[in-house]
Amino acid sequence: MVEPLPQVTALLPVLLLAFTGLALLLVDTLSPDTRSNTSMAVVSALGALAALAATVWFVASGTGSGDTGGAILLFADAIKVDTMGLFFTAIFASVTSLVVVAAHDYFHDHPNPATFYSLTLFAATGMSLLAVANSLAVVFVALEMVSLPSYVLVAFLKQNRGSVEAGLKYFLVGALSSAIFLFGISLVYAATGSLMLGDVAGVLGDIAAGTDGLDSRSGIAGLGIVMILGGVAFKTASVPFHFWAPEAYEGAPAPVSAFLSSASKAAGFVIAFRVFTEAFPVGASLSADINWVLAFGILAAVTMTLGNFAAAVQEEVKRMLAYSSIGHAGYALIGVAALTGADGGAAANGAVMGAAMAHLLVYGFMNTGAFLFVAMAERWGVGRTFEDYAGLAKRAPVASTAMAVFMFSLAGLPPFAGFFSKYFLFMGAIDNGFLWLAAVGAVNSVISLYYYSRVVKALFIDDPASPTTLDTIDVRPTALYAAVVFAAVATVLLLPGFGPVIETAEAAASALF
């Protein structure tokens, strides 16, 4: 008889990322003369891909799903491994693998690239731990595991003034948001007496029911929830906590911008999706006069509108993508902004949140690929503006075609995967009675087509300022080139596989309600 594996093996994806980061750090510390950029990149990519393979295997085998006994609880229930956590872990591992492969060429002349790989793996470990957190204490610790390496990664180019300045700004604003987030957790603990998400929800229900001695805590709990919401808004680069994102994304190395705008942003949404549904259920919160759904609705509408209008007036491609990522944060916020507390709304809530999760998966590939194309352009030295990209398709047709796929998918044009993810997201909002939110999202998607098409026009239609501009471009099939093409292929392959993706996401989200 084969003995069943211990339950702690459910954390295999998290452990693989952590051990890979530790191994890189150990080799770089003990034997700095023997390590090479290529070996570090290969080990990093293998570790991320192994974590992705383990995650997909767990999802396919039903680990943590309701059909196989439900979520796996570990360490006094502080860790909760379920399909939702595994889904987000797949996003983190996918983006990480693309970024570390691209970094092999981007940092080819850096004196110590091993630091980049280990910090990226440690940040991905924190994200994966965040996805399975079942306690506000674990949420905060995991969030700091993500934030601290991210500050260093943004300022990784120590000789570049823009990179160092962006890292300092990101650190100062991030430290303030972490303090606000932690203070919000302390207020929730003061009101409920617990940090476990399920226990907090139970006490919040008693507060809503007006239980003697608890009804007076509604104000304290409400203030704590608002401060936690502010911390989430910062992490997702939502208005009005977005001002750090354009500076950090523009100043950071392009692979770091790709990592932060895709994986780190998804980490912020996993906090919103899990904490606000499990610790602060919609029905109990509304009964306690805490309408965080309305707050998220306002955040979503303002964020997508400001992000798209700001992106439309940018002249630099990288800064345009930074504001574009803010707009996409607004789309994903619909996953919590369109929730309903009505009886029997669990299926509808699961559908709209599942659509937001599926959109984040698609967004992870197309946005990472877009930033990696910018990294390639920086490596080529062609410039940063739309005009500088003129005629690149004549010299690098495959990479330019991949960039066109990213742009059209981000804009939500059919038949690209971004269209289907937005379609299910907007339909979920309409089914829950939030027609106005879906309308705002649709209008903003039309606006975004303007600035995304500017990139495609420059690549394929415009002529370069000088015929010799493109002659010095090295278009050999390097790792950076391969990462861009693979991201485009993954974006396209999500089309036939979008049915299983949205079904898995909706099933994972429905388990929360």
From TrEMBL:
GO cellular component: membrane
A Pfam family reported for this protein in Swiss-Prot or TrEMBL: Proton_antipo_M
Presence of the UniProt keyword Amino-acid biosynthesis in the record: no
Bilayer topology annotation: Multi-pass membrane protein
Subcellular location(s) per record: Membrane
Keywords from the UniProt entry: Membrane, Transmembrane, Transmembrane helix
Entries under InterPro entries matching the protein: NADH-Q_OxRdtase_suN/2, ND/Mrp_TM
Highest taxon above the source species: Archaea
Transmembrane portions of the chain: 6-27, 39-60, 84-103, 115-133, 139-158, 170-191, 220-245, 292-313, 320-339, 351-377, 398-421, 433-452, 479-498
Domain NADH:quinone oxidoreductase/Mrp antiporter transmembrane: 133-448
HAMAP family per UniProt: NDH1_NuoN_1
Protein name as catalogued: NADH-quinone oxidoreductase subunit N
